[in-house]
Amino acid sequence: MSAGSVAVIVVLALVVILLLAALRSMVNIVQQGQVGVVKRLGEYRTTHEPGLVVIAPFVDVLVRVDMREIPVPGDRQDVITKDNVVVTVNATIFTQIVDAKQALFSVKSFDVAIDALARTALRSVIGTMTLDEALSERERINTDVQEQMEAVTDKWGIRISRIEIVEIAPPPQILQALALQKTADQEKRAKILQSEGLQQSAINVAEGDAQAAIKKAEGQRQSAILRAQGAREAAVLEAQGRAQAISTVYGAITSASPDPTLVAILQLDTLAKFAESPNTKLLVPFESAALMGAAEALKGVLDGVGNGAGRGAASTAVSGIGNGATSAAVP
Questions:
Q1: How far is CA 47 from CA 33, 43, 100, 153, 216, in A?
Q2: Burial class (CB in 10 A: 0-12, 13-18, 19+), 172
Q3: Residue-by-residue DSSP string for 157-191
Q4: Domain limits at 317?
Q5: Do 94 and 72 form a contact (C-beta atoms < 8 A)?
Q6: 157 assigned to some structural domain
Q7: CA–CA separation, 327 and 331 (whole Å)
Q8: Is residue 300 part of a domain?
Q9: pLDDT tens-digit readout, 244-303
């Protein structure tokens, strides 16, 4: 084989290699979730959506940019709080490129820039908070760090979707002090709850006693009212009975048209009943002198009539008056 033939074969091989390389650089496939940014001689030319992309060989360059949300785990770093406590903080940042052109041409290595920006933002936000605030207000930290980062990343064409604080770890001695403080707070709350329970129990017992006393007083009052009502009704009934009896007796006496002699006999009979009483003293009414005169008159009448039975009755009544009473008070 001559030298000319070898040279031709070499040239053809180079041409084939160049054609394959050109074909490979010309035909490109952009995957879903990505975009293709075309640069011609180092200058931005256009942005292609996912699919088949054909570019000029050896002149254009296709750069694929991932447009999906990307979690960027941060490294653990020491941060000083407002009350001069060193805590170890770790956060995960979720970013998403919204403008591929700005992400490529506005900042060099935007992933490195985001990591550095997250570190400075965390230190800035936590540096304005005390340890207690940093441990209890993670949502506030997330919001403040996101706002600070978005103020810078917006011009990069990158959006900070959210920031999640993974860990905030104080030093071991601070953890021990926090544990002791938590124990003391729990014991204080337990004592407060116990005292409040005792106070409420005493209040309930006092209220129960007061209610019982009120109920008892109401019962006693109601009982007294009922007894008074019963006594009043009994007195009324007794008075009514006496009134009816007096009215009946008076009516009977009035209807019989009594004369002085009959009245004297009734008085003598009443005095005889008094004389039969076991009492040692007998109170004789003021009208006793007239009564004795009536008795003497009655005795004279009976003697004149000659009625032995009447004489015996009158004599018995008069003698009963004189013998039954031990003493008489005559006004």
A1: 14, 12, 8, 20, 95
A2: exposed
A3: TEEEEEEEEEEEE--HHHHHHHHHHHHHHHHHHHH
A4: 258-324
A5: yes
A6: yes
A7: 13
A8: yes
A9: 888 887 777 777 666 666 666 666 666 666 666 665 555 555 455 555 555 565 555 555
